[in-house]
Write a structure and sequence with these properties.
24 helices, 11-stranded mixed beta sheet, 747 residues, alpha+beta, 31% helix, 7-stranded antiparallel beta sheet, single chain, 23% strand
Length: 747
């Protein structure tokens, strides 16, 4: 496709990409026994990698470079480690995909070929990440063209265009489609090629909704003068300071016409580019990067936390893998968990005890932790150890931690002084903290908490057995070497808030099952908040959640619980909320709690938020205007979605609310609602707003189409685009919603 390939021409002199265009035979590795040759090559669009079996037959597979998150060199996956004795590391590499899709492990015929692919794919990923809005638009157009050009002749006849409309979720009558086709076919050849297809796409994607806003502020209906743009920014987007400079910056950044730039004006194309950019997004760009005070004590932050991090699936038969740690850490998770048991040949293993989940070595987990802990964030990682090992193997654990992690492992208080309070994330940058039991009194017989081990099935159904079970096991022996690795996160059993207030030390941390935590919130919400202003708490899923489902983390954040451990491998609303909360502040995995949750002089009760000092409720009004190119959920030929939008508020119980627009029949391409939804927010500092698009079905449950979740405090008012995410949290461009947001004080 000439108009896009022009953008790829600069690559034709690049040796790495040249060899990728020609293609290479490599081995695709799934296990020690599954190693099959495949022919790989880069397509002309510089975006698609095509591969097929060497055997005869037409079946082939493709994937987009845009789906590749990273390229790992050498034996950097479990699969490649398992065949390390067969193939040298300089011929091996791993493609890691976004979301929850599995890795692709490859072995090239030579080190040179491996390097060509490693360097080539990295260049293409960099190019994609540095693409401007206009180039991205060209890329989407190119993708659609390729999907529709079935006979690959570089032209598109009307039949192919009709099929394309179905693929794009457009239900358009034949007469209208033919009219657009004829208007775009400037050469009157009966087919669309190159720029004609671009014209067709632009006519198809014309944004009447944005044009209406543009014309409302344009003095002459053709452009926005500098004054017009300033009026729009003040009146609609509620910009107050430095509006002139900001308007000039937007013209410079998004206006494609040099003539308009010289006139300090913005055309409709520039206006649409601005509204589709990160600055026109609902998420305030100033809050995407690190903006919070990181020098407060550790207990003053919500900490992104994972439960049973080693599991990629369910809790009974699921696959254990170091990949679980890599994925969680790369998502900014700052507290990971290991269940350690005695393993063969004196080597501790990690798995979900008394189940059929597979096993991995503790030392491999520690190695991965050393390699990946600080790739996404420099702030400290807490390693939460559930210890079932004998003293001998605990010594081996301590040895691995010390030898593999070296200076990264915190083994003594900072500055060597006796601490008087928890250090801050800033103080602990680049450090790994161990959460576990410490020896008390008798150096051989240390008390070991069993709260993680006593699943809720015991709590709820066998209370008496549970007490006997706990007493019987509370004298497990603890190795001094492992105990010495615990500094600021000493695990203790929780008795009561009164007991904690009198006896607890700031470096002690208690773990609660979700039902225990809920009970405390119901019965003593404000005391729980106070407890969490002084020390750390961890909440983990019920033992009954054998399918690795998650509880709602919002309930726990409402009480100030910092370490709310979720099954990262399970997509759904709970992980959307977690991703939403931690999407601010540089994705660093630490979010500063509101002042009223950090101050021990205040009494904040999440069940009765009106009683707090500084109570200032707000009104949120969201006009859902339109949707753009929503993805198909049903791959059935010819099926078009009937989209509706639901806006959900997640926060304190008084704020929990949801409202929906009506559904639009048969239009996933450019549905228009103009429906306004109103909410009252009592505790804006804790609220998250989730926008969900569903395909309406009157006979069964609606199908999920896309969602976006963000903290209420990160919302930008005015006309905004919401760029939707898939079920597993990855972006699905160009799918978006266009909304108008207003936030006003109620008192």
């Amino acid at each position: 496709l000439a108009f896009y390939i022009r953008g790829c021409l600069r690559y034709t002199s690049d040796d790495d990409l040249k060899s990728m265009f020609v293609g290479t035979v490599m081995r695709k590795i799934k296990s020690r026994t599954w190693k099959k040759q495949r022919y790989f090559r880069l397509q002309e669009d510089c975006m698609t990698i095509w591969y097929k079996s060497k055997k005869a037959g037409n079946s082939h597979s493709t994937f987009s470079v845009g789906d590749v998150e990273a390229v790992r060199e050498g034996h950097q996956s479990e699969v490649l480690l398992s065949i390390a004795d067969e193939f040298p590391p300089d011929r091996c590499f791993t493609l890691v995909f976004r979301g929850r899709r599995g890795n692709l492990d490859l072995v090239a015929e030579s080190a040179g070929e491996a390097q060509s692919w490693i360097k080539g794919i990295r260049k293409l990923i960099d190019n994609l990440e540095n693409m401007g809005q206009r180039e991205k638009l060209d890329q989407w157009i190119c993708d659609w063209f390729k999907k529709a050009d079935k006979n690959r002749d570089g032209q598109m006849n009307f039949k192919e265009v009709r099929n394309l409309l179905k693929m794009m979720n457009v239900d358009m009558n034949e007469h209208h489609a033919l009219r657009l086709f004829t208007m775009a076919d400037k050469s009157q050849s009966g087919t669309l090629e190159d720029d004609e297809f671009v014209l067709f796409y632009k006519m198809l994607t014309q944004r009447e909704d944005v044009l209406r806003v543009f014309q409302e502020y344009s003095s002459d209906g053709q452009k926005l003068t500098l004054q017009d743009l300033k009026d729009f920014l003040r009146e609609e987007q509620l910009h107050e300071d430095g509006v002139q400079q900001y308007a000039l910056k937007l013209i410079e950044r998004y206006e494609p016409s040099d003539t308009a730039k010289m006139l300090q004006a913005m055309t409709f194309d520039g206006f649409l580019m601005y509204l589709s950019s990160s600055e026109g997004s609902i998420f305030n760009p100033n809050m995407v990067d690190l903006y919070q005070d990181m020098t407060q004590p550790l207990c003053h932050y919500f900490i992104s936390s994972s439960h049973n991090t080693y599991l990629l699936e369910d809790q009974i038969r699921g696959h254990s893998s170091v990949e679980g740690y890599i994925r969680a850490l790369k998502r900014g998770c700052r507290c990971v968990e290991v269940d350690c048991w005695d393993g063969p040949n004196g080597e501790p293993i990690v798995y979900h005890g008394h189940t059929f989940t597979s096993k991995i070595f503790f030392k491999d987990v520690v190695t991965v932790l050393g390699n990946y802990a600080f790739k996404a964030s420099q702030y400290p990682v807490i390693l939460s150890i559930e210890n079932h090992c004998s003293v001998e193997q605990q010594k081996v654990m301590a040895q691995h931690l010390t030898q593999i992690l070296g200076d990264k492992l915190l083994k003594s208080p900072l500055d060597g002084k006796i601490p008087i309070g928890l250090p801050s994330p800033e103080d602990l940058k680049g450090k790994i903290l161990l959460k576990g039991k410490k020896i008390v009194d008798d150096p051989l017989m240390g008390e070991v908490s069993d709260e993680e081990d006593t699943a809720e099935i015991d709590d709820d159904h066998h209370r008496n057995d549970s007490i006997r079970h706990r007493v019987k096991k509370s004298k497990q022996r603890l190795s001094k070497e492992l105990s010495d690795c615990v500094v600021y996160c000493k695990s203790v059993h929780f008795s009561s808030f009164k007991h904690s207030q009198i006896h607890s030390k700031f470096y002690e941390i208690s773990s609660f099952t979700e039902s225990k935590a809920r009970k405390h919130i119901r019965e003593a919400g404000s005391e729980f908040v106070l407890h969490n202003a002084r020390q750390l708490s961890r909440v983990y899923p019920s033992g009954l959640r054998t399918d690795s489902s998650n509880f709602n983390p919002q309930d726990m954040w409402n009480a100030g619980c910092q370490i709310v451990a979720l099954n990262f491998q399970t997509a759904g609303v709970e992980m959307d909320l977690n991703d939403g909360l931690f999407s601010q502040n540089g994705h660093c995995g630490y979010i500063l709690k509101p002042t009223f949750m950090r101050n021990t002089d205040e009494r904040f009760d999440p069940e009765n938020p009106q009683n707090r000092d500084g109570y200032k409720p707000l009104s949120l009004s969201v006009q859902v205007i339109s949707g753009q190119q929503l993805p198909k959920v049903n791959i059935k030929e010819g099926s078009i979605i009937d989209p509706l939008v639901r806006v959900e508020i997640h926060g304190v119980p008084l704020d929990q609310a949801k409202q929906e627009t009506r559904y639009i029949d048969n239009n996933g391409f450019n549905p228009v609602w103009h429906d306004t939804l109103q909410f009252t927010i009592h505790v804006p500092e804790l609220a998250l707003v989730r926008f969900v698009v569903e395909d309406y079905d009157k006979t069964s449950k609606n199908d999920f189409v896309g969602q976006f979740t963000l903290p209420f405090i990160c919302i930008q008012p005015g006309y905004r685009h919401i760029h939707l995410l898939s079920k597993d949290g990855t972006s699905i461009p160009p799918s978006s919603l266009f909304v108008h947001v207003r936030i006003t004080k109620l008192m």
